Amino acid sequence: MEAEAAKFLGAGIACIGMGAVGIGLGHIFGNYLAGALRNPAAADGQFGRLIFGFAVTEAMGIFSLLVALILLFG
After folding, report:
1. What are phi and psi of 25, to 5 degrees?
2. Three-state DSSP class for 23?
């Protein structure tokens, strides 16, 4: 009984990372938009970094989901 409760608790804690992804994506895109509005000529040069930041942040969310699923069903 205690092991099952610990499993659910651990999976819930692992899902906190998925909430951080939403915050991270908002931060990344918000800063890109603010910078693009200040200096539109440099926006195209920063687009690759924007996509890289999006990919890394999204990978962290998928990783936290994977950890939660492994804790639940592993």
Report:
1. -65, -40
2. helix
